[in-house]
Specification:
Blueprint: E1 5-7, E2 12-14, E3 29-31, E4 43-44, E5 47-51, H1 55-67, E6 74-81, E7 88-93, E8 96-102, E9 112-113, H2 115-129, H3 140-157, H4 162-165, H5 182-204
Parallel strand pairs: 6-8
Antiparallel strand pairs: 1-2, 1-9, 3-4, 5-6, 7-8
Length: about 200
């Protein structure tokens, strides 16, 4: 079944998958050179060839932040991420929040976009919402699970089905020092999605 969705500010239909790639917060901004309208590109650790994002990635970011009721203050960029198997990261410098995604690993087709791409973006937004870049008191695995839960919740608010909201972590990837297993991440995303569905039912009653 084709699980793709149309990406627009009015409609979100269907869902789709791509290959599973890790997500997390490995990047640190080493120099800030924001000049508006992408006039100058900032520099990030573990990222090369930093460029403006795909316009559909910008739409996805706006949809995600609208869905969870936060102001869009996060700067978005695409790049070639040099750290193995990392498709995106969230980082902060001097009060400015950034998300960087790997444009070779996170597709944004012209007419449809995979829910997995949206999930990755929502996961990174979750890191910012929960201020994970400043949390040193808990294990990184717990931070990742919290971001997964947030992403599942955001996808529910955007109209994703349970299968669509949990597709990113299909497979049986093992736990690492910094990231939970695929099964644990899927369970956390599912919990967030179910919370979103419960809230929608309350709103409709």
């Amino acid at each position: 079944r084709d699980n793709n969705m149309k990406l627009s500010r009015r409609t979100l239909i269907g869902a789709a998958g791509i290959s599973v790639i890790g997500i997390g917060t490995p990047g640190v901004v080493s120099a800030q050179s924001w000049r508006g309208n992408f006039g100058m590109m900032p520099r990030f650790k573990n990222a090369r060839s930093v460029k403006p994002p795909n316009p559909r990635a910008e739409i996805a970011m706006n949809l995600i932040t609208d869905a969870v009721g936060i102001e869009r203050t996060i700067k978005l960029y695409s790049a070639h991420i040099t750290k193995t198997r990392i498709a995106g990261f969230a980082t902060t410098l001097n009060g400015t929040r950034y998300i960087v995604y790997d444009r070779a690993k996170v597709p944004w087709p012209e007419t449809i976009t995979p829910w997995t791409s949206v999930f990755l973006m929502a996961h990174e937004v979750g890191h910012h919402v929960a201020v994970h870049n400043f949390r040193k008191d808990i294990q990184k695995i717990r931070l990742e699970l919290e971001a997964d839960r947030f992403a599942g919740f955001a996808l529910s608010r955007l109209g994703a089905t349970e299968a669509q909201a949990t597709y990113y972590y299909r497979g049986n990837g093992p736990e690492t020092i910094t990231h939970p297993s695929s099964l644990a991440s899927t369970a956390s995303a599912r919990a967030g999605w179910k919370l979103g569905e419960r809230m929608k039912r309350r709103e409709q009653s």
